[in-house]
Protein backbone atom coordinates (compact mmCIF):
# COMPACT_ATOMS: atom_id res chain seq x y z
CA UNK A 1 0.00 0.00 0.00
CA UNK A 2 1.40 3.42 -0.88
CA UNK A 3 2.33 5.83 1.91
CA UNK A 4 -0.26 8.32 0.64
CA UNK A 5 -3.03 5.75 0.67
CA UNK A 6 -2.10 4.49 4.14
CA UNK A 7 -2.17 8.00 5.41
CA UNK A 8 -5.51 8.80 3.79
CA UNK A 9 -6.98 5.76 5.52
CA UNK A 10 -5.45 6.88 8.82
CA UNK A 11 -7.07 10.28 8.52
CA UNK A 12 -10.42 8.89 7.51
CA UNK A 13 -10.33 6.43 10.41
CA UNK A 14 -9.49 9.21 12.79
CA UNK A 15 -12.72 10.90 11.83
CA UNK A 16 -14.70 7.98 13.15
CA UNK A 17 -12.88 7.67 16.45
CA UNK A 18 -14.86 8.42 19.61
CA UNK A 19 -15.96 12.06 19.54
CA UNK A 20 -15.66 11.72 15.76
CA UNK A 21 -18.40 14.23 15.14
CA UNK A 22 -15.97 16.86 16.35
CA UNK A 23 -13.96 16.16 13.26
CA UNK A 24 -16.60 17.53 10.94
CA UNK A 25 -14.00 19.55 9.09
CA UNK A 26 -11.79 17.06 7.27
CA UNK A 27 -8.69 18.12 5.39
CA UNK A 28 -9.19 19.33 1.83
CA UNK A 29 -8.52 16.31 -0.40
CA UNK A 30 -5.67 18.05 -2.29
CA UNK A 31 -3.72 18.19 0.96
CA UNK A 32 -3.22 14.43 0.72
CA UNK A 33 -1.10 14.80 -2.36
CA UNK A 34 2.46 16.03 -2.48
CA UNK A 35 2.40 16.26 -6.24
CA UNK A 36 4.51 19.16 -7.47
CA UNK A 37 1.79 20.15 -9.94
CA UNK A 38 -0.43 21.12 -7.04
CA UNK A 39 2.03 23.77 -5.93
CA UNK A 40 3.16 25.32 -9.16
CA UNK A 41 5.93 27.68 -8.17
CA UNK A 42 4.92 30.27 -10.75
CA UNK A 43 1.93 31.29 -8.61
CA UNK A 44 4.17 31.96 -5.65
CA UNK A 45 5.82 35.36 -5.41
CA UNK A 46 8.41 36.41 -2.90
CA UNK A 47 8.39 40.14 -2.32
CA UNK A 48 11.45 40.43 -0.07
CA UNK A 49 15.13 40.40 -1.00
CA UNK A 50 16.51 36.94 -1.78
CA UNK A 51 20.19 37.04 -0.88
CA UNK A 52 22.32 33.93 -1.20
CA UNK A 53 21.76 33.24 2.50
CA UNK A 54 17.99 33.69 2.17
CA UNK A 55 17.93 31.34 -0.83
CA UNK A 56 19.82 28.75 1.20
CA UNK A 57 16.89 28.48 3.59
CA UNK A 58 14.10 29.20 1.09
CA UNK A 59 15.08 26.62 -1.51
CA UNK A 60 12.61 25.88 -4.35
CA UNK A 61 11.59 22.68 -2.51
CA UNK A 62 10.99 24.59 0.71
CA UNK A 63 8.94 27.20 -1.18
CA UNK A 64 6.80 24.42 -2.67
CA UNK A 65 6.34 22.87 0.75
CA UNK A 66 5.26 26.11 2.43
CA UNK A 67 3.00 27.05 -0.47
CA UNK A 68 1.32 23.65 -0.30
CA UNK A 69 0.64 24.06 3.42
CA UNK A 70 -0.73 27.55 2.79
CA UNK A 71 -3.05 26.33 0.03
CA UNK A 72 -4.34 23.57 2.28
CA UNK A 73 -4.83 25.56 5.45
CA UNK A 74 -5.06 29.31 4.87
CA UNK A 75 -8.77 29.14 3.94
CA UNK A 76 -9.61 27.38 7.19
CA UNK A 77 -7.46 29.85 9.11
CA UNK A 78 -9.47 32.68 7.52
CA UNK A 79 -12.72 31.03 8.64
CA UNK A 80 -11.39 30.67 12.17
CA UNK A 81 -10.37 34.32 12.31
CA UNK A 82 -13.90 35.24 11.15
CA UNK A 83 -15.25 32.97 13.88
CA UNK A 84 -13.23 34.93 16.46
CA UNK A 85 -15.03 38.08 15.31
CA UNK A 86 -18.45 36.42 15.58
CA UNK A 87 -17.63 35.23 19.11
CA UNK A 88 -16.49 38.72 20.03
CA UNK A 89 -19.87 40.05 18.94
CA UNK A 90 -21.48 37.73 21.50
CA UNK A 91 -19.14 38.98 24.22
CA UNK A 92 -19.74 42.59 23.21
CA UNK A 93 -23.47 41.99 23.59
CA UNK A 94 -23.03 40.95 27.21
CA UNK A 95 -21.97 37.30 26.77
CA UNK A 96 -18.74 35.81 28.10
CA UNK A 97 -16.65 32.73 27.33
CA UNK A 98 -17.94 29.55 28.98
CA UNK A 99 -17.26 25.82 29.13
CA UNK A 100 -18.76 24.23 26.01
CA UNK A 101 -21.76 21.94 26.29
CA UNK A 102 -20.93 20.12 23.03
CA UNK A 103 -17.58 18.94 24.35
CA UNK A 104 -18.54 18.05 27.91
CA UNK A 105 -17.81 14.37 27.15
CA UNK A 106 -14.20 15.28 26.33
CA UNK A 107 -13.79 17.04 29.65
CA UNK A 108 -15.49 14.28 31.59
CA UNK A 109 -13.99 11.16 30.01
CA UNK A 110 -10.60 9.61 30.66
CA UNK A 111 -7.97 9.86 27.98
CA UNK A 112 -4.29 10.75 27.93
CA UNK A 113 -2.00 12.47 25.46
CA UNK A 114 0.60 10.32 23.65
CA UNK A 115 3.84 9.60 25.58
CA UNK A 116 6.42 12.36 25.53
CA UNK A 117 9.90 12.04 24.00
CA UNK A 118 12.80 11.64 26.44
CA UNK A 119 14.28 15.08 25.85
CA UNK A 120 11.01 16.77 26.79
CA UNK A 121 10.49 15.05 30.13
CA UNK A 122 12.46 17.54 32.20
CA UNK A 123 11.67 21.15 31.29
CA UNK A 124 12.14 22.77 34.68
CA UNK A 125 13.64 26.00 33.30
CA UNK A 126 13.08 27.29 29.79
CA UNK A 127 14.66 30.45 28.40
CA UNK A 128 12.84 32.38 25.69
CA UNK A 129 14.02 35.06 23.34
CA UNK A 130 14.40 36.50 19.88
CA UNK A 131 16.20 34.65 17.11
CA UNK A 132 19.19 36.83 16.30
CA UNK A 133 22.45 34.88 16.16
CA UNK A 134 24.00 36.04 19.42
CA UNK A 135 20.78 35.49 21.38
CA UNK A 136 20.30 32.01 19.91
CA UNK A 137 23.81 30.95 20.98
CA UNK A 138 23.50 32.60 24.40
CA UNK A 139 20.11 31.04 25.04
CA UNK A 140 21.18 27.54 23.98
CA UNK A 141 24.30 27.85 26.16
CA UNK A 142 22.47 29.42 29.12
CA UNK A 143 22.06 26.26 31.24
CA UNK A 144 18.27 26.23 30.72
CA UNK A 145 16.84 22.87 29.73
CA UNK A 146 14.83 24.27 26.83
CA UNK A 147 15.21 27.35 24.63
CA UNK A 148 12.06 28.65 23.01
CA UNK A 149 13.17 30.49 19.88
CA UNK A 150 10.56 33.14 19.43
CA UNK A 151 9.04 34.43 16.19
CA UNK A 152 6.11 35.85 18.21
CA UNK A 153 5.96 38.23 21.20
CA UNK A 154 9.67 39.07 21.27
CA UNK A 155 10.25 39.40 17.52
CA UNK A 156 9.38 42.16 15.07
CA UNK A 157 9.02 40.05 11.93
CA UNK A 158 11.08 41.91 9.36
CA UNK A 159 11.76 39.83 6.26
CA UNK A 160 15.50 39.62 6.76
CA UNK A 161 15.20 39.16 10.54
CA UNK A 162 12.74 36.30 10.09
CA UNK A 163 14.94 34.54 7.55
CA UNK A 164 18.10 35.21 9.57
CA UNK A 165 16.31 33.58 12.51
CA UNK A 166 15.58 30.50 10.40
CA UNK A 167 19.20 30.39 9.24
CA UNK A 168 20.43 30.68 12.84
CA UNK A 169 18.19 27.83 13.99
CA UNK A 170 19.27 25.63 11.09
CA UNK A 171 22.92 26.31 11.95
CA UNK A 172 22.29 25.62 15.64
CA UNK A 173 20.78 22.26 14.74
CA UNK A 174 23.77 21.48 12.51
CA UNK A 175 25.81 22.12 15.65
CA UNK A 176 28.85 24.10 14.57
CA UNK A 177 27.46 27.55 15.13
CA UNK A 178 29.67 30.56 15.82
CA UNK A 179 29.28 34.33 15.83
CA UNK A 180 31.61 37.30 16.09
CA UNK A 181 29.90 40.40 17.45
CA UNK A 182 30.99 43.28 15.19
CA UNK A 183 30.31 45.78 18.02
CA UNK A 184 32.26 44.14 20.84
CA UNK A 185 34.56 41.86 18.87
CA UNK A 186 33.52 39.03 21.21
CA UNK A 187 33.16 35.57 19.69
CA UNK A 188 30.44 33.07 20.51
CA UNK A 189 30.29 29.32 19.92
CA UNK A 190 27.62 26.77 20.65
CA UNK A 191 28.48 24.33 23.44
CA UNK A 192 28.14 20.60 22.79
CA UNK A 193 25.63 20.18 25.58
CA UNK A 194 22.92 22.76 25.18
CA UNK A 195 19.21 23.38 25.68
CA UNK A 196 16.55 21.50 23.73
CA UNK A 197 15.13 23.70 20.98
CA UNK A 198 11.47 24.62 20.68
CA UNK A 199 10.17 27.18 18.21
CA UNK A 200 7.24 29.56 18.55
CA UNK A 201 5.79 30.54 15.16
CA UNK A 202 3.60 33.63 14.83
CA UNK A 203 -0.05 33.41 15.85
CA UNK A 204 -2.84 32.73 13.36
CA UNK A 205 -3.65 36.44 12.99
CA UNK A 206 -0.41 37.74 11.44
CA UNK A 207 0.25 37.47 7.70
CA UNK A 208 3.64 37.06 6.06
CA UNK A 209 3.43 39.90 3.55
CA UNK A 210 6.52 38.80 1.63
CA UNK A 211 5.30 35.33 0.68
CA UNK A 212 2.37 35.49 -1.72
CA UNK A 213 0.50 32.38 -2.83
CA UNK A 214 -2.17 32.76 -5.49
CA UNK A 215 -2.23 36.48 -4.93
CA UNK A 216 -2.50 36.53 -1.12
CA UNK A 217 0.01 36.80 1.71
CA UNK A 218 0.13 33.50 3.56
CA UNK A 219 -0.36 33.19 7.35
CA UNK A 220 2.87 34.02 9.23
CA UNK A 221 2.25 30.93 11.36
CA UNK A 222 2.42 28.63 8.34
CA UNK A 223 5.50 30.42 7.03
CA UNK A 224 7.44 30.15 10.31
CA UNK A 225 6.37 26.59 10.97
CA UNK A 226 6.81 25.42 7.38
CA UNK A 227 10.27 26.86 6.80
CA UNK A 228 11.57 25.53 10.13
CA UNK A 229 9.97 22.13 9.75
CA UNK A 230 11.09 21.63 6.16
CA UNK A 231 14.70 22.52 6.86
CA UNK A 232 15.15 20.80 10.20
CA UNK A 233 12.65 18.09 11.08
CA UNK A 234 14.71 15.19 9.73
CA UNK A 235 17.98 16.52 11.19
CA UNK A 236 16.36 16.92 14.60
CA UNK A 237 14.99 13.38 14.56
CA UNK A 238 18.37 12.03 13.49
CA UNK A 239 19.88 13.69 16.57
CA UNK A 240 17.35 12.02 18.88
CA UNK A 241 15.27 15.17 19.31
CA UNK A 242 12.37 16.37 17.18
CA UNK A 243 10.47 19.27 15.69
CA UNK A 244 9.07 20.87 18.83
CA UNK A 245 6.87 23.96 18.95
CA UNK A 246 5.07 26.44 21.14
CA UNK A 247 1.71 27.53 19.71
CA UNK A 248 0.61 31.06 20.64
CA UNK A 249 -2.59 33.08 20.99
CA UNK A 250 -5.17 30.44 20.10
CA UNK A 251 -8.76 31.13 21.01
CA UNK A 252 -10.43 27.74 20.57
CA UNK A 253 -9.90 24.01 20.20
CA UNK A 254 -10.86 24.38 16.52
CA UNK A 255 -7.69 26.40 16.05
CA UNK A 256 -5.73 23.62 17.76
CA UNK A 257 -7.38 21.15 15.38
CA UNK A 258 -6.11 23.21 12.48
CA UNK A 259 -2.57 23.04 13.85
CA UNK A 260 -2.98 19.30 14.23
CA UNK A 261 -3.96 19.04 10.57
CA UNK A 262 -0.92 21.12 9.61
CA UNK A 263 1.31 18.72 11.60
CA UNK A 264 -0.23 15.59 10.11
CA UNK A 265 0.17 16.93 6.57
CA UNK A 266 3.72 18.22 7.12
CA UNK A 267 4.88 14.92 8.62
CA UNK A 268 3.29 13.04 5.75
CA UNK A 269 4.89 15.25 3.12
CA UNK A 270 8.39 14.74 4.53
CA UNK A 271 7.75 11.06 5.22
CA UNK A 272 8.54 11.27 8.91
CA UNK A 273 6.57 9.35 11.55
CA UNK A 274 3.25 10.80 12.66
CA UNK A 275 3.57 12.04 16.23
CA UNK A 276 7.14 13.31 15.72
CA UNK A 277 5.96 16.88 16.18
CA UNK A 278 5.36 17.94 19.78
CA UNK A 279 3.73 21.22 20.65
CA UNK A 280 3.00 23.12 23.84
CA UNK A 281 -0.01 25.38 23.58
CA UNK A 282 0.10 28.71 25.36
CA UNK A 283 -3.12 29.29 27.21
CA UNK A 284 -2.99 33.02 26.78
CA UNK A 285 -6.46 34.02 25.72
CA UNK A 286 -9.53 34.10 27.93
CA UNK A 287 -11.66 31.98 25.56
CA UNK A 288 -8.96 29.28 25.41
CA UNK A 289 -9.02 28.93 29.21
CA UNK A 290 -12.47 27.38 28.83
CA UNK A 291 -11.23 24.82 26.28
CA UNK A 292 -8.03 23.44 27.82
CA UNK A 293 -9.12 19.79 27.73
CA UNK A 294 -10.43 20.17 24.21
CA UNK A 295 -7.17 21.75 23.00
CA UNK A 296 -5.12 18.91 24.47
CA UNK A 297 -7.56 16.42 23.00
CA UNK A 298 -7.25 17.83 19.48
CA UNK A 299 -3.47 17.67 19.71
CA UNK A 300 -3.26 14.47 21.73
CA UNK A 301 -0.85 12.76 19.27
CA UNK A 302 1.31 15.89 19.17
CA UNK A 303 0.87 17.53 22.53
CA UNK A 304 3.61 18.63 24.89
CA UNK A 305 1.24 20.25 27.33
CA UNK A 306 0.11 23.75 28.08
CA UNK A 307 1.78 26.92 29.30
CA UNK A 308 0.50 30.00 31.13
CA UNK A 309 1.10 32.91 28.78
CA UNK A 310 0.14 35.33 31.51
CA UNK A 311 0.82 38.63 29.70
CA UNK A 312 -1.25 37.90 26.65
CA UNK A 313 -3.87 36.41 28.96
CA UNK A 314 -4.27 39.78 30.72
CA UNK A 315 -4.43 41.50 27.32
CA UNK A 316 -7.05 39.00 26.19
CA UNK A 317 -9.12 39.48 29.34
CA UNK A 318 -9.33 43.22 28.58
CA UNK A 319 -9.99 42.59 24.88
CA UNK A 320 -12.63 39.91 25.34
CA UNK A 321 -14.59 41.76 28.02
CA UNK A 322 -14.02 45.19 26.47
CA UNK A 323 -17.65 46.27 26.74
CA UNK A 324 -18.21 44.92 30.27
CA UNK A 325 -18.19 47.96 32.55
CA UNK A 326 -17.70 45.78 35.64
CA UNK A 327 -14.46 44.30 34.26
CA UNK A 328 -12.34 47.43 33.87
CA UNK A 329 -8.79 46.51 34.88
CA UNK A 330 -6.87 48.17 37.67
CA UNK A 331 -3.23 49.22 37.11
CA UNK A 332 -1.34 46.53 35.22
CA UNK A 333 1.20 46.41 38.06
CA UNK A 334 -1.36 44.95 40.46
CA UNK A 335 -2.63 42.30 38.04
CA UNK A 336 -0.28 39.62 39.33
CA UNK A 337 -0.67 35.86 39.42
CA UNK A 338 -2.24 36.08 42.86
CA UNK A 339 -5.31 37.95 41.59
CA UNK A 340 -8.10 35.35 41.92
CA UNK A 341 -8.82 35.13 38.16
CA UNK A 342 -5.13 34.56 37.37
CA UNK A 343 -4.72 32.01 40.14
CA UNK A 344 -7.82 30.13 38.97
CA UNK A 345 -6.52 30.00 35.42
CA UNK A 346 -3.00 28.85 36.28
CA UNK A 347 -4.28 26.17 38.64
CA UNK A 348 -6.72 24.92 36.02
CA UNK A 349 -3.80 24.58 33.60
CA UNK A 350 -2.02 22.38 36.17
CA UNK A 351 -5.07 20.29 36.97
CA UNK A 352 -5.94 19.75 33.30
CA UNK A 353 -2.43 18.90 32.13
CA UNK A 354 -1.66 16.47 34.95
CA UNK A 355 -4.92 14.64 34.47
CA UNK A 356 -3.95 14.12 30.81
CA UNK A 357 -0.34 13.10 31.58
CA UNK A 358 1.48 16.13 30.27
CA UNK A 359 3.43 19.20 31.40
CA UNK A 360 1.84 22.33 32.85
CA UNK A 361 4.41 25.03 32.24
CA UNK A 362 4.50 28.26 34.20
CA UNK A 363 5.06 31.70 32.74
CA UNK A 364 7.30 34.71 32.56
CA UNK A 365 8.15 37.07 35.39
CA UNK A 366 8.80 40.44 33.71
CA UNK A 367 11.73 41.38 35.99
CA UNK A 368 15.20 41.37 34.46
CA UNK A 369 18.58 42.16 36.06
CA UNK A 370 19.01 45.82 37.02
CA UNK A 371 22.60 46.85 36.51
CA UNK A 372 22.39 50.36 37.97
CA UNK A 373 21.40 49.55 41.58
CA UNK A 374 22.20 46.51 43.70
CA UNK A 375 19.26 47.23 45.97
CA UNK A 376 16.80 47.50 43.11
CA UNK A 377 18.28 44.39 41.53
CA UNK A 378 17.92 42.38 44.77
CA UNK A 379 14.29 43.46 45.06
CA UNK A 380 13.60 42.47 41.43
CA UNK A 381 15.25 39.06 41.90
CA UNK A 382 13.20 38.46 45.05
CA UNK A 383 10.06 38.97 42.96
CA UNK A 384 11.27 36.44 40.42
CA UNK A 385 12.04 33.95 43.19
CA UNK A 386 8.60 34.38 44.78
CA UNK A 387 6.94 33.85 41.43
CA UNK A 388 8.90 30.67 40.67
CA UNK A 389 8.31 29.34 44.19
CA UNK A 390 4.55 29.78 43.81
CA UNK A 391 4.70 28.00 40.46
CA UNK A 392 6.63 24.96 41.63
CA UNK A 393 4.56 24.60 44.82
CA UNK A 394 1.31 24.87 42.87
CA UNK A 395 2.44 22.00 40.64
CA UNK A 396 3.92 23.58 37.53
CA UNK A 397 6.46 21.31 35.83
CA UNK A 398 8.70 24.11 34.70
CA UNK A 399 8.92 27.81 34.15
CA UNK A 400 10.13 30.55 31.80
CA UNK A 401 12.92 33.05 32.19
CA UNK A 402 13.61 36.07 29.97
CA UNK A 403 17.34 36.45 30.58
CA UNK A 404 20.34 34.09 31.11
CA UNK A 405 21.06 35.62 34.53
CA UNK A 406 17.72 34.27 35.77
CA UNK A 407 18.37 30.65 34.83
CA UNK A 408 20.19 29.74 38.03
CA UNK A 409 17.65 31.51 40.22
CA UNK A 410 14.79 29.54 38.69
CA UNK A 411 16.81 26.29 38.59
CA UNK A 412 17.64 26.53 42.30
CA UNK A 413 13.99 26.82 43.22
CA UNK A 414 12.77 24.04 40.95
CA UNK A 415 15.66 21.75 41.96
CA UNK A 416 14.83 22.28 45.60
CA UNK A 417 11.09 21.65 45.27
CA UNK A 418 10.84 19.27 42.30
CA UNK A 419 12.99 16.20 42.84
CA UNK A 420 11.76 14.23 39.81
CA UNK A 421 11.99 15.32 36.18
CA UNK A 422 8.51 16.78 36.46
CA UNK A 423 5.50 16.57 38.78
CA UNK A 424 2.91 15.41 36.27
CA UNK A 425 1.85 12.67 38.69
CA UNK A 426 0.78 15.32 41.20
CA UNK A 427 -2.97 15.59 40.62
CA UNK A 428 -4.96 18.66 41.66
CA UNK A 429 -8.52 17.38 42.21
CA UNK A 430 -8.93 20.17 44.76
CA UNK A 431 -8.90 22.80 41.98
CA UNK A 432 -12.40 23.91 41.09
CA UNK A 433 -11.99 26.72 38.60
CA UNK A 434 -15.57 27.76 37.94
CA UNK A 435 -16.64 30.07 35.11
CA UNK A 436 -17.20 32.70 37.74
CA UNK A 437 -13.67 32.32 39.13
CA UNK A 438 -12.07 32.51 35.67
CA UNK A 439 -13.98 35.68 34.86
CA UNK A 440 -13.72 37.42 38.26
CA UNK A 441 -12.72 41.04 37.72
CA UNK A 442 -9.35 41.94 39.26
CA UNK A 443 -9.40 44.57 41.98
CA UNK A 444 -7.08 47.50 42.63
CA UNK A 445 -6.48 51.17 41.94
CA UNK A 446 -6.43 52.95 38.57
CA UNK A 447 -3.77 55.61 38.76
CA UNK A 448 -2.62 58.50 36.66
CA UNK A 449 0.94 57.25 37.15
CA UNK A 450 0.10 53.96 35.43
CA UNK A 451 -1.70 55.77 32.64
CA UNK A 452 1.45 57.78 32.00
CA UNK A 453 3.66 54.69 32.20
CA UNK A 454 1.38 52.89 29.74
CA UNK A 455 1.89 55.76 27.26
CA UNK A 456 5.66 55.78 27.70
CA UNK A 457 6.08 52.02 27.52
CA UNK A 458 3.61 51.55 24.67
CA UNK A 459 5.24 54.21 22.51
CA UNK A 460 8.82 53.17 23.22
CA UNK A 461 8.01 49.53 22.56
CA UNK A 462 6.31 50.36 19.27
CA UNK A 463 9.21 52.60 18.33
CA UNK A 464 11.60 49.69 18.79
CA UNK A 465 9.26 47.28 16.96
CA UNK A 466 9.01 49.57 13.94
CA UNK A 467 12.81 49.55 13.93
CA UNK A 468 12.87 45.75 13.87
CA UNK A 469 13.38 45.02 17.60
CA UNK A 470 10.67 42.94 19.27
CA UNK A 471 11.79 42.90 22.91
CA UNK A 472 13.29 45.73 24.94
CA UNK A 473 14.16 46.55 28.53
CA UNK A 474 12.11 49.57 29.69
CA UNK A 475 12.16 50.95 33.23
CA UNK A 476 13.81 47.71 34.43
CA UNK A 477 11.17 45.38 33.00
CA UNK A 478 11.13 43.16 29.95
CA UNK A 479 8.61 44.56 27.47
CA UNK A 480 7.36 42.65 24.46
CA UNK A 481 4.31 42.54 22.19
CA UNK A 482 2.10 41.05 24.91
CA UNK A 483 2.96 43.62 27.56
CA UNK A 484 2.65 46.47 25.04
CA UNK A 485 -0.82 45.17 24.16
CA UNK A 486 -1.77 45.49 27.83
CA UNK A 487 -0.61 49.13 27.77
CA UNK A 488 -2.70 50.20 24.82
CA UNK A 489 -5.84 48.14 25.62
CA UNK A 490 -5.75 49.35 29.21
CA UNK A 491 -5.70 52.96 28.02
CA UNK A 492 -8.51 52.24 25.53
CA UNK A 493 -10.59 50.52 28.21
CA UNK A 494 -10.15 53.33 30.72
CA UNK A 495 -11.11 55.98 28.14
CA UNK A 496 -13.99 53.91 26.77
CA UNK A 497 -15.49 53.38 30.23
CA UNK A 498 -14.53 56.86 31.47
CA UNK A 499 -12.62 55.36 34.38
CA UNK A 500 -12.17 57.43 37.50
CA UNK A 501 -8.48 57.71 38.35
CA UNK A 502 -6.94 57.91 41.81
CA UNK A 503 -6.65 61.71 41.45
CA UNK A 504 -10.43 61.97 41.04
CA UNK A 505 -10.17 62.73 37.33
CA UNK A 506 -12.54 61.02 34.87
CA UNK A 507 -10.46 59.89 31.92
CA UNK A 508 -11.66 61.11 28.52
CA UNK A 509 -10.06 61.12 25.07
CA UNK A 510 -9.36 64.84 25.49
CA UNK A 511 -7.58 64.48 28.84
CA UNK A 512 -5.66 61.49 27.46
CA UNK A 513 -4.43 63.57 24.49
CA UNK A 514 -3.08 66.17 26.93
CA UNK A 515 -1.30 63.50 28.97
CA UNK A 516 0.17 61.94 25.82
CA UNK A 517 1.50 65.33 24.71
CA UNK A 518 3.15 65.86 28.10
CA UNK A 519 4.67 62.37 28.16
CA UNK A 520 6.02 62.68 24.62
CA UNK A 521 7.64 65.95 25.60
CA UNK A 522 9.27 64.21 28.59
CA UNK A 523 10.33 61.31 26.40
CA UNK A 524 12.01 63.66 23.96
CA UNK A 525 14.07 65.01 26.86
CA UNK A 526 14.77 61.52 28.18
CA UNK A 527 16.12 60.12 24.90
CA UNK A 528 17.47 63.39 23.48
CA UNK A 529 16.26 65.46 20.54
CA UNK A 530 18.57 63.70 18.04
CA UNK A 531 17.47 60.17 18.94
CA UNK A 532 13.84 61.29 19.07
CA UNK A 533 13.82 62.80 15.59
CA UNK A 534 15.92 60.09 13.96
CA UNK A 535 13.87 57.25 15.51
CA UNK A 536 10.29 56.13 14.92
CA UNK A 537 8.82 57.94 17.93
CA UNK A 538 6.39 60.18 16.03
CA UNK A 539 4.99 57.27 14.05
CA UNK A 540 4.80 55.11 17.17
CA UNK A 541 3.04 57.82 19.19
CA UNK A 542 0.55 58.46 16.39
CA UNK A 543 -0.29 54.75 16.15
CA UNK A 544 -0.51 54.31 19.92
CA UNK A 545 -2.74 57.35 20.31
CA UNK A 546 -4.99 56.38 17.40
CA UNK A 547 -5.49 52.84 18.68
CA UNK A 548 -6.10 54.00 22.25
CA UNK A 549 -8.86 56.39 21.22
CA UNK A 550 -10.49 54.43 18.38
CA UNK A 551 -14.24 53.77 18.70
CA UNK A 552 -13.61 50.06 18.13
CA UNK A 553 -10.79 48.27 19.94
CA UNK A 554 -8.30 47.00 17.33
CA UNK A 555 -7.54 43.27 17.44
CA UNK A 556 -3.75 43.46 17.64
CA UNK A 557 -1.27 46.31 17.85
CA UNK A 558 1.07 44.31 15.66
CA UNK A 559 -1.38 44.18 12.73
CA UNK A 560 -1.19 47.88 11.73
CA UNK A 561 2.43 47.96 12.92
CA UNK A 562 3.28 45.03 10.63
CA UNK A 563 1.75 46.79 7.64
CA UNK A 564 4.19 49.64 8.30
CA UNK A 565 7.12 47.32 8.99
CA UNK A 566 6.61 45.25 5.86
CA UNK A 567 5.74 48.17 3.55
CA UNK A 568 9.43 49.03 3.54
CA UNK A 569 10.48 45.64 2.15
CA UNK A 570 7.45 43.88 0.57
CA UNK A 571 7.81 45.50 -2.84
CA UNK A 572 8.88 43.98 -6.14
CA UNK A 573 8.82 40.19 -6.53
CA UNK A 574 12.23 38.55 -6.24
CA UNK A 575 13.36 36.29 -9.05
CA UNK A 576 12.90 32.70 -7.93
C1 LIG B 1 5.18 37.64 27.23
C2 LIG B 1 6.14 36.71 26.59
O1 LIG B 1 5.88 36.28 25.52
S1 LIG B 1 7.57 36.37 27.33
C3 LIG B 1 8.54 35.71 26.03
C4 LIG B 1 9.02 36.75 25.09
N1 LIG B 1 10.00 37.59 25.72
C5 LIG B 1 11.29 37.17 25.83
O2 LIG B 1 11.62 36.13 25.36
C6 LIG B 1 12.29 38.05 26.54
C7 LIG B 1 13.66 37.86 25.96
N2 LIG B 1 14.61 38.72 26.59
C8 LIG B 1 15.27 39.70 25.94
O3 LIG B 1 15.07 39.91 24.76
C9 LIG B 1 16.29 40.46 26.71
O4 LIG B 1 16.61 39.83 27.90
C10 LIG B 1 15.88 41.91 27.06
C11 LIG B 1 15.58 42.68 25.78
C12 LIG B 1 14.66 41.93 27.95
C13 LIG B 1 17.04 42.57 27.78
O5 LIG B 1 18.12 42.48 26.90
P1 LIG B 1 19.51 43.22 27.18
O6 LIG B 1 19.25 44.62 27.57
O7 LIG B 1 20.38 42.96 26.01
O8 LIG B 1 20.06 42.46 28.41
P2 LIG B 1 21.54 42.43 28.93
O9 LIG B 1 22.34 43.55 28.36
O10 LIG B 1 21.47 42.34 30.40
O11 LIG B 1 22.08 41.06 28.35
C14 LIG B 1 23.25 40.46 28.84
C15 LIG B 1 23.61 39.33 27.93
O12 LIG B 1 22.58 38.36 27.97
C16 LIG B 1 22.08 38.11 26.66
N3 LIG B 1 20.66 37.88 26.74
C17 LIG B 1 19.72 38.63 27.36
N4 LIG B 1 18.52 38.07 27.25
C18 LIG B 1 18.70 36.93 26.55
C19 LIG B 1 17.81 35.91 26.13
N5 LIG B 1 16.51 35.94 26.41
N6 LIG B 1 18.32 34.89 25.43
C20 LIG B 1 19.63 34.85 25.15
N7 LIG B 1 20.53 35.77 25.53
C21 LIG B 1 20.05 36.81 26.23
C22 LIG B 1 22.41 39.34 25.87
O13 LIG B 1 22.46 39.06 24.51
C23 LIG B 1 23.74 39.74 26.46
O14 LIG B 1 24.72 38.93 25.88
P3 LIG B 1 26.29 39.38 25.84
O15 LIG B 1 26.70 39.63 27.25
O16 LIG B 1 26.96 38.21 25.23
O17 LIG B 1 26.36 40.61 25.00
O1 LIG C 1 3.71 34.46 25.66
C1 LIG C 1 3.64 34.67 26.82
C2 LIG C 1 2.81 35.66 27.41
O2 LIG C 1 2.85 35.80 28.64
O3 LIG C 1 2.09 36.32 26.63
MG1 LIG D 1 2.19 35.67 24.56
From TrEMBL:
Residues 44-105 form the Malate synthase N-terminal domain. Its EC number is 2.3.3.9. It comes from the Eukaryota. One of its GO terms (cellular component) is cytoplasm. The keyword ATP-binding does not apply. The active site is at residues 200, 480. Coiled coil: none annotated. It is an enzyme of class 2 (transferase). GO terms for biological process: glyoxylate cycle; tricarboxylic acid cycle. Keywords: Glyoxylate bypass, Transferase, Tricarboxylic acid cycle. Pathway: Carbohydrate metabolism; glyoxylate cycle; (S)-malate from isocitrate: step 2/2. The keyword Nuclease does not apply. Belongs to the malate synthase family. This is Malate synthase. It comes from Apatococcus lobatus.
